[in-house]
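Entry 12.
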Amino acid sequence: MNAPLWPVLLKDGEVTLRPIRLRDQNVWREVNRRNREWLRPWEATVPPPVPGGPVIRRPTYRQMVRHLRTEARAGRILPFAIEYEGRLVGQLTVAGITWGSMCSAHIGYWVDREVAGRGVMPTAVALATDHCFRRVGLHRIEICIRPENRPSRRVVEKLGFREEGLRPRYLHIDGAWRDHLIYALTSEEAADGLLRRWHRARPGTRPSPE
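Predicted 3D structure (tokens):
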């Protein structure tokens, strides 16, 4: 299958989702460096190898972007950089895109602590989810979050994602296998559009255009 409407640029107000680029490297590294301690409890890590098994190393930035580009061209992933007021402040990836009888994917994200609480992340998730439902043709989006990560849980709860249950020791995060809560949404549950829903929930904001 061809890549689903990729590359694409999504924008609402001061928040923009655009393809992550090799030339973002210096800014991306700086944002990560400043947020190292804040992001560490929620960041994916590589588990230690089993005896005799392969050693898996964390990719470099350039390796990461090249891999994301390859997967995007194959239609399996949508790798976005998040911009706020014209500067890179985070990353959002729609991954695990599955077609056939499932038509689903999952979303992962992180954001610069300096812009947390300004509505950047709910706007970014709403933009990506609307794109997946309305343009790409997916039916279901999942977001997996550690139970302890209340800020991230608030993001998806504001947008109407349902909590479906706990997956024990689901992902290797911050050096250990961690439990995750599963939040999900189907296209029928977001027929009016998540961005419109988010704007209606925020005082003083305009409804988004169709």
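Annotation: Residues 120-136 form the longest helix (17 residues). The longest strand covers residues 87-98.
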